[in-house]
Amino acid sequence: MAKTSVIIVGTGGMARHHINVMLTMANTQICGMVEVAADQRQITRELYEKHGKQCPTFYNTINELIKAQGVPDAAFINTPHKYHFDNTKDCLTAGMDVLLEKPMVINAAEARRLIKVRDKCKKLLVVAFPGSLSPAVKKAKQMIASGKLGNVTSVSAYVHQHWKLATIGKWRQDPEISGGGFLFDTGSHMVNTVVDLIDQDVVQVCALMDNSGTPVDINSTVSGRFRGGAMFSLAAAGDSMHCTSEVTVIGDKGILQTGIWGERLRFKPLKESSFTEVACPPSKGVWEQFLKVRAGKQANPCPPEVGLRFARLMDMIRTSDTTQKRIKAR
Hints:
It is a single chain. Helix content is 35%, strand content 27%. The protein folds into two domains: 125 residues, NAD(P)-binding Rossmann-like Domain (Rossmann fold); 173 residues, Dihydrodipicolinate Reductase, domain 2 (2-Layer Sandwich), CATH 3.30.360. The radius of gyration is 20 Å and the shape is globular. By secondary structure, it is of the alpha/beta class. The strands form two sheets. A nine-stranded mixed beta sheet has the order 14-13-12-11-7-10-9-8-15. The chain has a six-stranded parallel beta sheet with strand order 3-2-1-4-5-6, sandwiched between helices. The protein starts with a strand and ends with a strand. Helix 4 packs parallel to helix 5 and helix 6 runs parallel beside helix 9.
């Protein structure tokens, strides 16, 4: 695979997680960084030092980087949620393919606008939901579609994390920047993976959300129904410990279990008493999968249409909590 030049837009903790992997990949050249915070720049430089490599130049804006270096092949956007739309639009318009951290944008209206930008620019846009990009979820979807589970009747999922205390005073608890709380942040993986596995629109939702004394949601419970009739239940606990998840897909001939990041896959058929591990190809994560899509080696498993589907559902969840009513899809 030819070497891909890429810029990193936003170099906070999540970006550094990705950079740590990208620096081990010979087919990737990180050629520039866009970051305004001095402390994040310094921590990123230290990461490069640990790898024994020279840190690329930092810039304050995407346009400043382009003027200095020209247009690279791609951009990996890791900024706070509020800035996703503008950052992605700038990169697509400049001629870059884009890998965009989840959640794609703040709401469904922004998602529709971003799809129009993608269509106009005719560039690749992949949303970096690890679940959708994981070989385990891909395999699970194939098993469901082939009838391994029989008639799927329900999906249950949970995620809990020490999120409330860990994000106090940070942008994730500022609704103007984050667009939401725990369910929209870590919980977005759960919401997206559940919907992706069933691969149908949600037609009804009931939701309860609790801010636990903060400006954003911390604990949430959501139930609903897919267009095909299967039901689902989601539990998000952001005032907990560690970070653990489970997704269980229940059919009348078998049951699948995975994590919200697609980090494992287990299956129990009707006549077996226990789960067995399902073998899946290894993956280095979302950047590796993006490169495969860009090279034409696989279809895009997480285009902006997936981001729109997630955004529509989140809008329904918020409306249900606010109105205390069951919300039906329009």
